[in-house]
Write a structure and sequence with these properties.
Layout: H1 8-41, E1 50-54, E2 62-67, E3 77-80, H2 82-90, E4 94-95, H3 101-105
Parallel strand pairs: 2-4
Antiparallel strand pairs: 1-2, 1-3
């Protein structure tokens, strides 16, 4: 039992349709590959030099200062300038124990 038509004209029609469909699929694959390659070439912006981590909740106060490359940052971190990071450390905000921004900024206890 075959699900294909038994006669040659319909088989040829089916062959033509499958060939056209295969070509469309190959074109879509090529376009998708080009898009992925273009996305891979896009450069990500460099990380900020300093980050300030805030506590949980609206209007939460800063709880920790990080260097921009620190692996221990969380989603509550916001970019900060060098002066703002130094000021936060001077105001008693904790320095990350992993990236030691207090050492890099020259703010030591």
């Amino acid at each position: 039992m075959s699900d294909l038509p038994p006669d040659l004209p319909r088989l040829r029609t089916l062959e033509t349709w499958l060939g056209m469909t295969l070509e469309r699929v190959r074109q879509q694959i090529a376009a998708a590959e080009q898009q992925e390659a273009a996305a891979a070439r896009r450069e990500l912006p460099p990380p900020p030099d300093w980050l300030i981590e805030h506590g949980i909740g609206v209007g939460a106060h800063p709880v920790r200062v990080h260097a921009g490359h620190c692996w221990d940052t969380r989603s509550r971190c916001h970019p900060a300038s060098r002066d703002l990071a130094r000021r936060a450390l001077a105001d008693g905000v904790e320095a990350c124990t992993h990236c030691r921004p207090d050492t890099a900024l020259g703010v030591l206890d």
